[in-house]
Design a protein that fits this description.
heterodimer; B: 7-stranded mixed sheet; 6-stranded antiparallel sheet; globular
Chain lengths: 469, 569
Amino acid sequence: MLFSSMTFIYFFLPIVILLYFTTKKELHNTILLIASMIFYAWDEPKYLVIMLLSIFINYFGAILIDKYKTQKKQILFWIILTNLLFLIYFKYFNFIIENCNNLFHSNISALDIVMPIGISFYIFQALSYVIDVYRGECKAQKDIYKLALYICLFPQLISGPIIKYHDVAEAIDSREINFEKVKIGVKRFIIGLSKKVLIANTMGAVADKIFVQDPSSFSHAVAWIGSVAYTIQLYFDFSGYSDMAVGLGLIFGFKFMENFNYPFVAKSVTEFWRRWHISLSTWFKQYVYIPLGGSRCSKLKKLRNLGIVFLLTGIWHGAEWTFVVWGIYHGFFIIMENIFNIKEFEKKPHKWYVNAIMHFYCVFEFLISCVIFRADNMKYAWDYLMNMFGFLHLNSENFNYSFGYYFDKIVFITFIVAVLCSTPLFKNMIYVQNKNAKVFVNLWLLVIFYLSTISIASDTYNPFIYFRF
Amino acid sequence: MKRNIITITITLIIIIVTCRYWIIFNPMSVDFDILGKGKCNIDVQLKKETSYNFNDITKIYFNLNTSKHVRFDFEDIKIPECLKIIITELETNNPIEIKNITLNSKKYKVNELKNFYPKKGRIAVKNNSVIIYPEDNAVNIEYNKNLKTSISAKINFKLFIIISILAFLLSCKLSKYVVYFSIIEKKSRIDYIFLAIFFVFLFVPMSYINEGEIAKKENRFLAKWQPLINKEGKFNYKFGKDFNNWFNDRFCLRQNFVNCRNSLTFLIANKCEKGFFDKDTQTIYPVWSFGHYDITTVKTNFKALFHFNEYCKAHNIKLYVLIAPNKADVHTTKCNFVKDNNKHIDFLDYIHSLQEKDDLKIIYPFERMKKIADIGFLLYFKTEHHWTDDGAFIAYQELMKVINKDFPDVKTLTINDYDIFYNKKVRGDFLRDFNYGQDCGKMGIYDNICRIYHKEDYRYYRHKDFNNLNETIIFKKYHFGKMYSYDKAADYRVILLGTSQSENLTEFIPFSFKNVKRIRNNSVGVKEDEEFKIIKRYEKEILDYKPDIIIFCITLNNIERLRKLFEME
């Protein structure tokens, strides 16, 4: 089930909220667990089995780690391997086969595997739990239902944020629900929904129109529009989903970590990654980068560690070479910034134009990476980038559409709103205390909630164009 | 005290909202006597939105030769919104008399003519009976006045008590929270109201589920409820998806939300999901009036036409393919986003090369239509993508130029053969009711907007000898099959096969050929094997009818469907 669907917002969510708030505290976890299972099984019930299997393995694995302290390293190794095998099988198996075939000229047929939704997220959460138990940061959960709730809690199940077990262990046992949390939660949910529906979907439609065509069939300007539109879509889609997850978490009494912190105000790629998909970055930092030695080792090893982390980040995002290159691309910039010690440079006060150049560099770097991220293959990404930079020979007679096809008034308004909302200009909007401002903000939130609703409702409008022949 | 008031209020609201579950209305019934000649189908409807029930549930194939008493029961209607009597597939144009109209045992006095609104016919009221004079083979009459009827209902006390208790318990719990929040926490009322609106709004879409069968504006069936475990005890693994489809089609205020969104989009950007609006020319361009296929796809699809041509040759039939150009190519839009010109030029080159070969007879009247449209003639309706009678007439003339080479004795009609009249009606589509703005509804544009912008008078053609043309319906349901015979025309048998674009051609082609069989090849609500997609289905008609000529009218932006012609066999 998707957050931005009629069924979720106007059927599933009200029923869960109603049940949650009208039952005793002791039943809250049970309600959330059942709701989460239904939420996950809604579109593809068969994948529930895989998630349940993952829960069982990690539950018993953690108990074994706790019990057999002397052999906990071996046990941890096998649990991690099992989890990764799940991920490799469902996400990377066909990619590996395809590349083996290309490399060894073999003819191994690909399997008909459909990746279960959210597997990358819940496997990483499960790994976080067993590693935390191994490190002694928390005790093994004796109650399998509580562990199941941690792994499959529906607000963050499909697209994160990736919650570390030690962050929510207490809340799973006991959490307080109060007016303030519910109020902020609802507001965050509305903001997230509108980010997704009103901004990401609008810009996504523009990006789709462009990326569906051959790079030689549109102009350089259109190529840049496509890149900008997709960058905006990516940010608002993902951060919108994270906002909804955080909001829903608050409504049910949890406090999830923030996943985005205005990444486009960053002045370096290093800073950008401290603000972008924070839960994934911190996961890799805590469970890969630090165990590899982190920054407390030689400069060369540190750079190697950074390279590994970003390569894995790329691979985590998908089973395509474009994602691998995307990870390497970011890793390259991070390593270069480390070599040139950009952290120190950032700390010093600079004139406005130096700051502007740094902002520009950071946004530009990400804009280019988004083309690689969005492209179906590296050939397409290369041609697209060549078009953007004017190196692709174009013939205007081959252009399918003129500029106006991609950029209308609604897109323009959405673009302006998106740029403004990418900055911390409205950061504390939902926390205002002034009475008039509060009335204005609440009204505005209700308006954007209504606009999001009519937008989602319109997606259900599906005229049958029988007369088209 | 405060808490008690809140509890009682919430309880009452829940009881009222759930009244549809504990109040059981007795089914409505409509009775009347009917007298006429020949046979017909009769349908009675009590809702303002006309339902085109494809399942023929309430239709009766009825012999009118003697007075008959008919009765219709409506299980799902509690309060009638209006009374519609729809008579279709009439065999003769003789008057039909309806009397003793009774609704739930309440007999109506039909003595005021103004209370009735006829469509496609005239009516008169005499001796408490309605006499209908049909102008066509179908006629509707609608009783416009508010219907006063005795509504009988009973209360399901068991359910009422259960709902009341549950509502009370729920209200107690909710009021506890409300009081807790407002008294203990002393929070701002502004936030309190905000949260209340949000949570109430969450429940609005599921507060009423549309139980209808079709969405008229979308021209499709609404998704049906598929249970988690079906009657055979099998588990439905697609329950989630089925539920999404069902809920998405039926939630409360759906049409209002869609209208609101479309109106907003239309006002801001002059476009809607399905089309663009050119303010300068006050014309709507549906998205499918732009589309062109690349030439490789065209050639692939045209293989089906070559096959069909061979098939016709083998049966000694001449095939003529008339391709309707896209509206946006003929009436060039100033919303100049779509530069598919190159594809269109490629297509024109390809068509010219085919025309030179003179094997497959293809008529693509684009060039002449463009010239005439540039003068200022409206060859396509402003509100949609079909050609007007003017457009169809030009296409007909271009078609006849080619036919005349093989059949010089066939008369090509001129404008002098026709009476020209002006009308605001939009024709061309199925289930249209000839109301302007209908197609815009399908495009997702709010009808009211269309009515503001589109007040155009269109030129309509009616043959001067129209009364001597015999028309017979040959297909029931939605194939729009008709048989035409006109004795003064050249003695050939013709099958006119085509999409909705071929509809206007029936104003011309039946007057050029003695016998014409018209088949609409894109229909909704028919079984796969009955559809005119595959050659087998055409074959049945062709072999039965044995035509000399087949005129195949296709639409440029959807030639991909041609693939199915031979692929599906």
